Amino acid sequence: MTDTKNIIYINNKKVEVTNVYHDITLLDWLRNYHKITGTKEGCAEGDCGACSVIINKKNKEDTKPINSCLVRLGQVIGSNITTIEGLGCDKNPHPLQMAFSKEYASQCGYCTPGFIISGVSLINSGKVVNNDTINDAISGNLCRCTGYSPIIKAIKSVSDRKTKFKKVEIINKEKKVRFGNITYLKPNNLKELKDYLEVKSFQFIAGGTDLNLQRPIINKKENNIICLSSIKELNFIKKLKEKMVLGGAVTIENFLDSVRSKMPELIEILQRFGSPQIRNQGTIGGNLCTSSPIGDLAPLLMVLNSDINVFGKNGIKKTNIKNFFKGYRKNILKKDEIILSIEIPYPNKKNKIFSWKLSKRYDQDISTISLAINIQTQKNIIKEIQMAAGGVAATPKSLDKLCKSMLEKKLDDAIDFATENLDKFIQPISDLRGSSHYRLEAMKGLFRRLQICLRLDKESLSIMEV
Amino acid sequence: MNNLNKIPIHDSSLRHSTGQAIYIDDMPEQENLLHGAPVLSKVACGKIKKINSDKLKDLPFFTKIITAKNIPGENEIGPIKNGEPILADDFFSYLGQPVAIVLAKTHQEAIYASSLVEIELELTTKPILNLDDAYEQKSFLEDPMILEKGNIKKDMSKSNFTLSGDFEIGGQDHFYLETHVAITFPGENDEYVVWSSTQHPTEVQHGVGKVLNIPSAKIDSKVRRLGGGFGGKESQATIFAAMSALGAYLTQKPVKIRLNRHIDMTASGKRHDFKIYYTVGFTVTGKVLALDIKLLSNGGNVLDLSGPVMTRALTHLDNCYFIKSLKAIGYVCKTNTVSNTAFRGFGGPQGMLTIENILYSVSQYLQKPIDEIRKINYYSKLNGLKTPYGQIVKNLKIDRILDEVYKLSDYKNRLKNINKYNLNQKANNLPFRKGIALMPAKFGISFNKPSLNQGGALVHVYSDGSIRLNHGGTEMGQGLFIKVAQVVAECFKVPLEQIHITSTNTAEVPNTSATAASSGSDLNGMAAWNASNVIKNRMIEHAAKLFKKNKKDIVLGEGRIICGNRSLSFSELAFSCWENRISLSSTGYYKTPKISWDQGKLRGHPYFYFTWGAAISEALLDINTGESRILRADIVQDCGNSLNENIDIGQIEGGFIQGLGWLTCEELCFSKEGKLLTTGPSTYKLPGSRDIPQTFNVKLLEKADNEEKTIFRSKAVGEPPLLLAISHFLALKDAIRASSTNSRPELLNTPATPSEILKVLKV
Ligand SMILES: Cc1cc2nc3c(=O)[nH]c(=O)nc-3n(C[C@H](O)[C@H](O)[C@H](O)COP(=O)(O)OP(=O)(O)OC[C@H]3O[C@@H](n4cnc5c(N)ncnc54)[C@H](O)[C@@H]3O)c2cc1C
Ligand code: FES
Ligand code: FES
Questions:
Q1: Which of B276, B267, B257 is nearest to B329 (CA)?
Q2: Closest CA to B316 of B746, B710, B723, B660
Q3: CB–CB contact A151 B478 (8 Å)
Q4: Is B440 in a helix, a strand, or coil?
């Protein structure tokens, strides 16, 4: 039973959260507790977008699509949720709902509400609406019937029809929310966090896009979930003279927005990170703390020589990201320590930064391998090089030894050396994303790609640009 | 066919868009409804010693476990052969097979509780997990099927060259966005109403009846719409519907079974993966004289529909080509994996990919373009028109289709440009290569088994003039309901809005066939036309009486009944019919004419007609990384006189992209133990919006009325476009061939993932 009055707004209507006895998702609550069934479940793992809803957390016109299957109810208390029903109905449809109907953009219709949520979010974002931005906006939505063309057409056809979202007074006073044996603790600042760290058993959550994938919904034991997203000291972006500092709870989407001017080399990899829905939830801190060998941020942050500020009971300590990962999904953090912020030095103007990801599908896919490179050449001689790779070992791996042996060599010789001797430096495994043979061969391919990019002075070389 | 000069949109499209369209899981739930979750086996084969549910007793909420022992009737839902249980009883035969069901008050509780049930087992034999092992151990689900024609020995020895090879064709998960779901409501006197996401309500009715030991007449099987089917809900929906019915029977409460994605992908069948071994004999010019071929298909643990799938593969092996002598043997292999099932194309795509792969290898061997090889092998008066199974190919449209698709795609110029592009990339040591390829296609329409080719409809006209339409077909997104409604509106000459479309229901139209084999509008459209005509004739007869004129003086138009300068509205006439005690309700029935089939000999005239199509695709490849994409596709498809051009174009675009997925990114991975590892979209990648061709031209063949008397001379469209995606696979091979002479495009298996591509690329 919930202890206090917990409010969520659904389509601007205030709804009290009651009689929830398990640690359910927002999707489950909408569909099964309120029979608001326009929002569908297609996968329950954040990959199909059928469950997309628009969330507004503050009293601003700050509306964003998220996957309702991937957030727990406890994370969204106090928010305003717009579902497909909130946009219109058959008697009074939203322009995009009309457009989908007219353009034959639905066949079985199961994916349709999710696409419309993504489409409305794009149109409202103020971005130009073209094929490219539409593809980005719907990269987290799957349709098995239409082949997408009519969906893209429908969104384009109403690209100027912005939606006015009503502002509702959002009160979010409850710092403690309880569902069954799970208590959500929502500190507003580090001081409050410190107090909560005294509770017996707890887990941190930021966006939850990783943590919420495999977790019990029914819990036999008491547990506390400490939400990091509300901590103000974890939610800032500072662009200093020589570096950028980002709070640990900054979302990937905000990270993406902030690099556009200062580090455009990062855009491509961040743009390919999950989908808008995932990027709006997932955080930088969360990505590093999962310490997955195929996390997309680590290799890049490694070659940029970033530092991580860790906050614990005894204060703040700084560590270089290369020393952060300790084993498969393991890192140096103690149970009660968090990533407070990340410091990313701006790359040397003379250097070139590349960050490549290979996967079965271009969008919304986890890397099979990835490679980040920070390199400086003078007259074809490598003067500086840092490389880090994902998907080639139990942790993200900085290829320091290989880089050392490439230094001060002619580019072509260095790359020949790297491709010929690669198996001495990495020994990737075979899994469902690719064989070890593929990982090695494709890594060599990326070295050759580097060679071409430097030769032709190109920023990237992707089949998507042809 | 355009009703009132406007091409109608999908009847539910606005409700899809507003979230108001009701799918099974959206239906209101009664207070006492229970949810069920299956318990799955954790090893690939073995004997069940005990199902231990002790841990359920400690739970603070209600649960109930159901096993095969609780089944009142037969534990049996095989659509063709017996031996296909809904719950494993003594033995289980694949990893993930349902062994028990746990009921609880919520979905979450059921799932959680099902994870606490332990299966105590005894390992028996070693599981068979791949096609070669199954073949070696003669592990088959059916006797081998042999399709033979001509004299293979003689023509093989007459050939200038022979070439042997083998390749693999991967399976494919349906990934309908709506997973399997069913609810059963118990009623009085052993009545049950089953709502399920099925393409085959009649089979659900029969399956439930068998399992519960209750006659069909007491079971209503219904569905308003499916959130996608693609064949995956043809036979297999019955398994889950029967589970919910069993739960409802045992508890006398409504029971819902909704699979989560992981369980759906683990415990329901997919497109058959195939392995092909061939020897082909051909002349110097590339004319195929003899083809000796062995097809192994993965049927999985039980037969399901694997027999007919193999039959369709065998009867589509010829595609558009006359093959003088053929010996094709199809082995439906029995393995310890989930039983594979129908999937859009139903073996056809695998058969057609096979012959295209072989022709590709011939072309490579002779160092000639594949189109040249095709040209001398097409069905024609000169080459011959008799298929290996004896049906004569009539109304050949290859030439017309090819002309149009070459024009549409600007093929010649692009071929030149692509060659230039590749030379330029090579010369500058750059990594991209392009390829371009054609895929011509002929596809046979009708279920191979003649008895399935029947359809029924029930039409009521009410005294206010509104018309209620019901038929045996199911709506899964393909637009069947609107097409059939168009037919009825056209018959009565009333506005389409006057037709009310209703849920498929075995209580209204009995003994239906699955909505499958692309035949939905052929069968149900014709049945609805027949039903409507019966009523229309009665109404006209009555109108003639009213106007005191001859029947032939009465015409219908724009919702009115006209006789000279007098007229009545449709509703006035309907009311008058009622007043005069004239029945305004009729069933309609249709069976496909002209078809025959001898399954034992694989001979006959199984297909009422053929549809024709062709696509030209351009592929781009990065030889450094194996990444690839499709740049452009041009398609010309023969839909006869299309019932709804926009719906048909939607089927073509969607089918083509689904085919791309099958051939490129959709990869089913199994562990050594036989566990499917790719059980969700995070690991099983279907095409996303950026994976479609940027230039995508789709054209229906114009002035192409079906020569056979189908409904408004239209043609089926559901399946054929899928296999046009083979054009992209061939274009990829082309690009690989352009990468270097050491590359081995002929060895490329599907799906052509980056990993697979790098395997055959030698740079
Ligand atoms: C559909 C989908 C697509 C994805 N695509 C990508 C992708 O393209 N690339 C990629 O790299 N990843 C991807 N991910 C993985 C995931 O989204 C990211 O790793 C994300 O950044 C995790 O952030 P989060 O805030 O959601 O983490 P959470 O799930 O909230 O947390 C993950 C773990 O880190 C801990 N944690 C979180 N924040 C902190 C902190 N500040 N200090 C200490 N511990 C903390 C949590 O306790 C938890 O153990 C994807 C995931 C999904 C579901
Ligand atoms: S249900 Fe698929 S993303 Fe949420
Ligand atoms: S319309 Fe069926 S999944 Fe998109």
A1: B276
A2: B723
A3: no
A4: strand
Residue of B nearest to A115 (CA): B17
Token pair of A281 as six digits: 């939830």
What tokens appear for B384 in the block? Answer: 């011959």
Residues near B211 by beta carbon (within 8 Å), at least 6 away in sequence: B71, B72, B73, B74, B75, B76, B77, B86, B242, B245, B246
Q: Is the shortest distance between the CB of A339 and ligand 1 below 6 Å?
A: yes
How many C-beta neighbours within 10 Å does residue A234 have?
Answer: 26
pLDDT in tens, B637-687: 999 999 999 999 999 999 999 999 999 999 999 999 999 999 999 999 999
- A108 with B626: Cβ contact below 8 A: no
Per DSSP, which regions of B392-453 are E strands? 432-445
**CA atoms of B302 and B268, how far apart (whole Å):** 12
pLDDT at residue A61 above 80?
Answer: no
Q: Domains of chain A, with CATH numbers?
A: 1-163 (3.10.20.30), 357-466 (3.30.390.50)
What distance in Å separates the CA atoms of residue B502 and residue B474, rounded to the nearest whole number? 10
- pLDDT tens, position by position, A214-244: 899 999 899 999 999 999 999 999 999 999 9
CA distance A284 to chain B (A): 20
B484 token code pair: 């059939």
Q: What is the DSSP string of A4-58?
A: S--EEEETTEEEE--S--S--BHHHIIIIIH---SS--S-SSSSS-TTEEEEE-S
ipTM value, please give it. Answer: 0.97
Mean pLDDT of A191-210: 95
A446, two tokens: 């990326």
Q: How far apart are CA A63 and CA B349, in angstroms?
A: 45
Which phi and psi (to 5°) does residue B516 adopt?
-165, 180
Tell me, what amino acid is at B155?
D
Looking up tokens 């906050």 gives: A311
**Residue B719 catalytic?**
yes
Which of A11, A217, A361, A436 should we substitute to test contact with B (largest number of B Cβ atoms within 10 Å)?
A361
Rounded to whole angstroms, how far apart are CA atoms B218 and B200?
17
Query: pTM for the whole thing?
Result: 0.98
Helix locations, A304-410, DSSP H:
400-406
Mutate to test the interface with A, among B263, B625, B648 (most CBs of A within 10 A): B625
Please tell me the residue having the least CA distance from ligand 1 atom 37: A286
Residue type, B19: G
Q: Taking Cα atoms as reference points, which of B309, B335, B347 lies closest to residue B97?
A: B335
Cβ contact A323:A392 at 8 Å = no
Residue for token digits 């490679």? A371
Query: What are the pLDDT digits (tens) for B395-430?
Result: 999 999 999 999 999 999 999 999 999 999 999 999
Which residues neighbour A317 within 8 Å (Cβ) at sequence distance 6 or greater? A309, A310
Contact B680 A45 (CB under 8 A): yes
Domains of chain B, start order? 3-16+454-591 (3.30.365.10), 32-125+174-267 (3.30.365.10), 128-172+270-392 (3.30.365.10), 394-442+608-763 (3.30.365.10)
Q: Give all strands (DSSP E) within A187-345, no chain letters.
A: 202-205, 223-227, 237-239, 243-247, 307-312, 315-320, 325-327, 330-331, 338-345
Cα–Cα dist A286/A248, whole Å: 8
Please give the helix or strand (H or E) that residue B130 lies within, else none: none
Residue of B109, B719, B746, B756 marked active site: B719
CA torsion sign, B64 to B70 to B73 to B75?
positive
pLDDT score of B473 more than 70: yes
User: What are the E-state strand segments in A266-417?
Assistant: 307-312, 315-320, 325-327, 330-331, 338-345, 352-358, 369-378, 381-390, 397-398
Q: Quick check: B227 and A109 CB within 8 A?
A: yes
